[in-house]
């Protein structure tokens, strides 16, 4: 495990709660602190897609997720949407890396315009202004011109857009393996070598 690594993670109400759970599981092996923001809509999607009921209380969410992911309960810190005193709200304390997985079209739009209406949007705004690394995993089908323009705006601001689009060339046999593929690519971009999936060109 890599010590003293800190990362922010946003989870929004786009479909793909499995990507969020899979990513958190892998990040917990490499990061000592995961600063998590999860929207109300994301809690609805978790209940719908994963049959995982997350309460409103940030502390309870952290406990449930740590149990679910079987990770050390010190690693995941969850913040309420208006906790402006959280470290992620200020460039002086925020982790330099942030992933939003999955990213709804609504959150994409808010970040592209700098709205900062809740802690998740503010945390993303902070990472952009501090020239840190922000990765978004947008999920919608099809994308409208508005969605695409927002993604272009964000890309021009240095944000990495990694759509929820797993490859099939490793012949995945389960949904978890598809989610692993996406997490592996995100970890690659975070600068974390991993063997979650077979790398391209190394297949026998
Ligand atoms: C089960 C479910 C699936 C959804 N899937 C998507 C989706 O794939 N992409 C998207 O942008 N919004 C999706 N939505 C709608 C968003 O949850 C909604 O726009 C919400 O306002 C997003 O808020 P947030 O960005 O604060 O999480 C979905 C909603 C539900 C309940």
* Helix-strand pattern: EHEHHEEHHEHEH
Helix content: 25-40%
Q: Would you tell me the structural class of the helices and strands?
A: alpha/beta
Low-confidence stretches: none
Indicate the CATH topology. Rossmann fold
What composes the largest sheet?
Answer: 6 strands, parallel
CATH superfamily: Flavin prenyltransferase-like
- What value does the average pLDDT take? 96
Tell me the overall shape.
globular
Termini gap: 29 Å
Question: How many structural domains does the protein architecture include?
Answer: 1
What radius of gyration results from the CA coordinates?
Answer: 16 Å
Oligomer state of the chains in this structure: single chain
Count of alpha and pi helical runs: 7
Strand percentage lies at 5-15%
List of distinct ligands in this structure:
flavin mononucleotide
Query: How many beta-strand runs?
Result: 6
Describe the structure.
The protein is α/β, with parallel strands linked by helices and 204 residues long. The protein has a single domain, classed as Flavin prenyltransferase-like (Rossmann fold), CATH 3.40.50.1950. Helix content is 40%, strand content 15%. Strand 5, helix 6 and strand 6 form a beta-alpha-beta unit. It is globular and about 45 Å long. The chain starts with 5 loop residues before the first strand and ends in a 15-residue tail after the last helix. The model has no long low-confidence stretch (mean pLDDT 96). The chain binds flavin mononucleotide (FMN). Flavin mononucleotide binds next to helix 2 and helix 4.
